[in-house]
Amino acid sequence: MPTITAPTAPTAPSAVDLTAAQAHVLAAQTAAPSYAGYNVGQYIELVGPLDTEALDDAVGRTLDEAPWLRFSVTSDGGRFRQAPVPVRPPARSLARLDTSGAADPVAAAVELVRGQLACPPRLELLIDPPLPDLVPDLAGAVLVTTGPRHHLLVQYFHQLVVDGYGVALLSRRIAEHYTSLVRGTMPTPSPFAPVSVLADADRVYTASAAHDAELAAWTSRYAEPPAPAWPAGRPASAGDTALRHTVVVDRADSAAVADAARSAGVTWGEAVVAATAVDLAARTGAAEATLALFTTARTAPGTLRVPGMAVNILPVRVPVSSSDTFRVLLGRAADELAFLRRHQRVRGEVLARALWPELPGSRVPGPLVNLRPFETELDFAGTRGHVVSLASGPVDDLSVSASGYPDGRLRLDFDANPALYDETSLRRQAEVCAAALVALAREPGRAALPLVVELAAAAPGSRTVSPGVDPAPSRARRGGPEPDDESGTVALLPSAHRLRGAQGAVEHLHESVLLRVPAGLRAAPLRQALAALARRHPALRLALHRTDGIWSQEIRPAASAPAVTDPATLRRIGVAGRSESEREQLVSEAARTAAAALDPRTAAVLRAVWFDAGPREPGRLLLVGHHLSVDDVTWQSLADEIAPLYEEYAFGERSADDALPPAGGLTGWASTLAAEAQSTARVVELAHWSALASGTTGRAWAATEGGHRVVTRLELPVPYRGPAPDGSDPVDALLLAALARIASSRPRLHDGTGLLVDLELPRSDAAPRTAGRLTSAFLLRLPLGPEGAAEPARTHLRVVHALASVPDRGQGLEQLRHLNPQTAARLADLPRCGVRYHRRTVLRAADETAAWGPAPAGEWHPLEVPGTAPPLTGPLELTVHTGPPVDGRRAVRVAWRWSDRLFTADEALALAEEATGTARALALLPGDGATRP
After folding, report:
1. Whole-number Å distance between alpha carbons of 446 and 438
2. Which of 142, 270, 291, 643 is 20 to 30 Å from 83 at the Cα level?
3. Are 251 and 409 in contact, with CB atoms under 8 Å apart?
4. CA pair distance 813, 809, nearest whole angstrom
5. Using CA atoms, how far apart are residues 187 and 174, in angstroms rounded to an integer?
6. pTM of the entire structure?
7. Would you tell me how many other CB atoms lie within 10 Å of the CB of residue 326?
8. Which three-class secondary structure state does DSSP give residue 165?
9. Each residue of 479-529: pLDDT tens digit?
10. Using alpha carbons only, how large is the chain's radius of gyration in Å?
């Protein structure tokens, strides 16, 4: 090898400030001295002739040109500075290893290097070292022989010293020095600028007006920061090392990605960002996918020549809706990256603390994305050097690094936190993500989100789109098969006929519940649990079709039902650190948004909003269901099932004792009701119901939204010994008797012949335990009570007799009215509704101390969304909530809605209070079972 004199290295100042990036890493490393995750590394695979002495010299010369890579840190009143520390003689020499005798020499070499990377730095020798030149080597290299003419030049660095861009500068310079040494040519002057260039650029920028303007641009753009979303459902403390799975996209598929990007006027980098955003939205349900993008942050003059630490991690938010095409998302990603590049010097940790203060570690949330446009191939005097990254820094969930080969192929390195992934789940995540990139590129005009959801669902070995949780055990052991196959046309249930006859729009009619949920939930298994509920309960996949006033219903297959496939089914809202009033406002706004998202035409009949209060405080889960798909039994079933389903998906272990009962049977129940409507037992009830149609046609009231903010309460003693129909709830007779007594003095409540009441009561015990609106409704005409206080017990007893005279507790009216064409004609002249009475049961917890259960009653009032209940077609509506006995008393809550065309708010309040007081007085009257009919 000819003797070649090395060019003069750039002079490094004796001591300079740390760069902003170095200061962040030092603070994190100091907080966790035994943490090794900031070690990064790569190897250059050299296949061909190699002059090892020349390579040794080339590495040494390159490191000599960057003396600031070996330094000590001095502290002065909390201000840290770095000073280069020269190498002690003898001169540095490249360490050597030989793994050629191993079964897989390259894998053996990589394993040895990963062991080195798992060793934390010795901070006690770095900061104010006991001897001036006794500092840890935070940068180095090892030459590994893996076979004849086959070597790996392994480079390792700590991120306190250099970032990925700086490593690329060093690798390129090593190749240049090696080539000049082998060929006997004079090397070019050192291209490096000293680290002081980076430090000075940071200092000048931080004190400038440009910094303030760019920070303002970021805070304005993120005035409402999106909720963090994580592929595994949550981040975890990053381990010393990460799992790695690499996907090399073949030439044809890489060309498709390049073509799609080119046609949109962008690069493959924007394509990777857009595809990662879609994948994240598909897995988490995030309406806006927030990614954490590595950026060089080197825009000042000379900074691109410094092998040092400057890298920044900044947020990229990409809104993703179910109708967005990949072409649209490419443009959206391009706009976001353009903004980021213009403002890339604002430190990401500053933004993270300001925008996501609840997150630990001052890290922008979301999966890490590293676009590496650096060389992947280097020339070592004619021997090809292929660059392979081994580790890129801490990974708290998932990291995606993308780079391109000279032949056009794309390489995708997926690094994952071992606390959240194993090799199988990481491989599945990586392969689905890579396949999604290619599929989106090949069909850029197709809706991207459904495509990725379908792709993930069809992936081998993957039942769901959430990779961060190990696959749950077989579900067949859960007490019966899931009714995934219950799909197709279903006959209209009586509740649908009831709604069809109402006036007004039906798209957003709904009911909702608010649950208490444990602290520290994860979005991925929660979404899986919601999807499992929809697979179990066909009503959560129910679509409504209307053509020229003709209604029909269809149960969507699980594979295409929004509650199973649409990530928007679950939304997360962070409420950590929020005040009670702020949380109440967020719940109210979320309830409105969720109700507006319901659309029975597309079977979008379920929405959920998780209010995440952080890892130490229980959160809340809002469930919103369309009016046709839910009733009280539905909510109780869903509340009982979601906890064990979540725990199964989150932790993968459930015992046989926790098996859920079979669900489904909606289609069969609809058929049963239709058959009952033709039965003799039902038809003989026709005479009772026809009598309601004789004489008067009832009074007509104009439909109205009505007022609805009056709530009254009463309590019943337990056991209640007053008169009541056998098997019924005594609350009905008490409240209806109270209404009958006060109605005589309020002609706006009746038509002169009696008080007409439309009762909707909980479903019968014969109905299946599955989701759906399976309640029954019937009409009842009550005699008006005498004016004044005379004989209140007689009024009560007359109401009890009227209720007892209703055949089969009213189950048959809607069957005869809607499901039997012959009897329907006879009942066409039934009077319109008067007072509407709807009794509901309060959601209960199996165990009041359990982590899952109904939220406190005081938190429910923000769920009321005006305009999303069926229109009021009578003068008054009572929604009666009954709960279980507590301390010998049974609480009853009555919500009142009234026609604002008939009553003022003050009149309605007076009416509600008088009726409740009358019912309370009736409950205190003496009585026993002998007075019951």
Report:
1. 13
2. 142
3. yes
4. 10
5. 11
6. 0.54
7. 29
8. helix
9. 233 334 688 899 999 999 888 876 667 888 889 999 999 998 887 788 888
10. 36
